[in-house]
Design goal:
This protein has 3 domains: 5-43 and 219-298 and 429-485, FAD/NAD(P)-binding domain; 87-207, no CATH class; 302-423, no CATH class. Helix content is 37%, strand content 22%. It is built from 17 helices and 19 strands.
């Protein structure tokens, strides 16, 4: 019997994961990627002597006690890349007093919060009780759990989900009497005040046990490690190869036609790409449902963390918090919007990203897709907008880091159009917390398969919840489904990736 073949379109983390597990399970595996490197949105880029990371902030699975650590081992990320936890998740600063520092040591955090506002001790106690509960509840690790384990976890966690799931950081902060804590606390998760308290408590609890940390080398090293694992398992990755059409016969995916007209055939096709382009482009919109059409009918204009203002600075920032919420002196117009704060990321903790005594520093901004799409049609205006943003950000950072302007060696501004050009992803989307719950506890994802089409699967953030662990687990799950379809046992080789 000939070896069955799987074609995978898109070398994002979901596609890379699917390719690894397909090769582990004896399938002839070919991965098609339009770019010259792996990773998709999980990427970084080099400017001069500096590496700027465009993806990873708090990676679930950095603790050996996490279920997801086993996933990263299977995919060749560990032990190849050293994993490290953080001492603090974020520092929220103010001009007239000590900052709010979200220490990962929960005892230290409790003492810190009560020192900031002794009168708020009862609120702090409630907050810390929730965070301590999550120390032992590996929420995203459920992506690797069996159905029975997920049901048991749902039963165990139900009271916490009911209590905290619908409560936002902004609403919870209203319980503080201290004016600074009321302003600062809503910003502690990427400066997203509308984020659920469930996610904040998960971050606090899991970071306290060394999870939600950083892989040495960042996103590109992370993606390259998985790509190398694909090749070591016998899989093939074809870079610079753009898919044009998914070939369908009798409502079954049978292969892919490339942009140059070459047709490749397979027993199953997996796509890891921008959802609308896959469903309405590669497949021509022939296999949808009302739910799928409704999901994609109103694309989100807002792109969280859509603009990356990257600076390479000849300055030692290794003692700085890895993330800072920096208040501005009154609203400052940046990227066409009044801003009251900047979310600053300091990468002085990873010496592989810059020369000795230097480090990358980055400010991420939410932005409008339509604005940058419109500007991209006028190159002079587009470049001017990038330069204007960089100048405004540098001016604000100079207040926090005196002398910074003279220490800057590299300036790079990436926009949603940059992301689209290199990865095919452009617009943002508003993830529904219910999607995460369904995926973790019931294994339900909206467009992982499409109605009326067999032997076709989607992986990635457009097929289910975002985050690197979730899309990597999705690639694993898809190959498990394919193995079940073909009547073969699923194998997950832990590998022996070199350190």
């Amino acid at each position: 019997m000939s070896q069955k073949r799987i074609l995978i379109v898109g070398a994002g983390v979901g596609g890379l994961s699917a390719a690894c597990y397909a090769a582990m399970n004896g399938y002839r595996t070919t991965l098609l990627e339009m770019h010259s490197r792996p990773g998709g949105v999980c990427t970084s880029w080099t400017r001069g002597d500096y590496v700027f990371d465009g993806c990873i902030h708090n990676l679930a699975g950095t603790s050996p006690d996490s279920r997801l650590y086993g996933l990263w081992r299977e995919l060749g990320v560990v032990p190849r890349l050293a994993m490290r936890g953080y001492d603090e998740l974020v520092a929220v600063e103010r001009p007239d007093g000590p900052p709010l520092v979200l220490h990962t040591d929960l005892d230290r955090l409790e003492a810190h919060l009560k020192a900031l506002s002794p009168v708020d001790a009862p609120v702090v106690d409630e907050l810390m009780a929730g965070a301590r509960w999550f120390r032992g509840f590996d929420l995203l690790g459920l992506a690797m759990a069996s159905p029975a384990e997920r049901i048991a976890a749902l039963a165990r966690g139900a009271p916490m989900f009911r209590k905290w799931g619908a409560l936002t950081l902004e609403r919870f902060a209203e319980r503080f009497s201290d004016p600074f804590l009321r302003r600062a606390f809503p910003t502690v998760v990427y400066d997203w005040p509308g984020q659920t308290m469930l996610m904040a408590l998960y971050f606090m609890g899991r970071a306290s046990v060394g999870d939600l940390g950083w892989p040495e080398g960042g996103a590109q090293a992370f993606s390259q490690a998985i790509a190398d694992r694909v090749v070591s398992l016998g899989g093939e990755i074809c870079y610079g190869t753009r898919a044009q059409t998914v070939l369908v016969e009798h409502d079954r995916a049978v292969g892919v036609r490339l942009a140059d007209g070459v047709e490749l055939f397979a027993d199953a096709v997996i796509c890891n790409g921008y959802g609308p382009d896959v469903i309405f482009g590669l497949l021509g919109g022939r296999f949808t449902s009302r739910a799928v059409r409704d999901y994609y009918a109103h694309p989100e204009d807002r792109v969280e963390m859509g603009v990356h203002v990257c600076l390479g600075v000849r300055r030692d920032i290794s003692a700085e918090p890895h993330a800072i919420v920096l208040p501005l002196e009154g609203p400052v117009v940046i990227d066409g919007e009044p801003r009251e704060r900047l979310y600053v990321e300091c990468f002085g903790f990873d010496q592989t990203l810059a020369p000795a005594g230097a480090a990358p520093l980055k400010v991420v901004l939410p932005t409008s897709w339509e604005r940058w799409d419109r500007l991209s049609r006028h190159p002079v205006a587009y470049k001017a907008a990038q330069a204007e943003i960089a100048e405004a950000v540098i001016g604000q950072l100079e207040r926090r880091f005196p002398g910074l302007r003279d220490q800057i060696e590299v300036v790079d501004v990436a926009t949603p159009v940059t992301t689209q050009r290199f990865t095919g992803n452009g617009r943002g989307f508003r993830p529904d917390p219910a999607v995460l719950v369904k995926a973790l506890f019931a294994g339900r994802r909206l467009s992982q398969t499409l109605p009326g089409l067999s032997d076709f699967y989607m992986v990635g953030q457009w097929a289910g919840p975002p985050s690197l662990p979730m899309v990597a687990a999705m690639g694993r799950d898809v190959i498990r489904q394919v193995c079940r379809r073909d009547g073969r046992p699923f194998a997950a080789d832990p590998g022996e990736a070199s350190g």
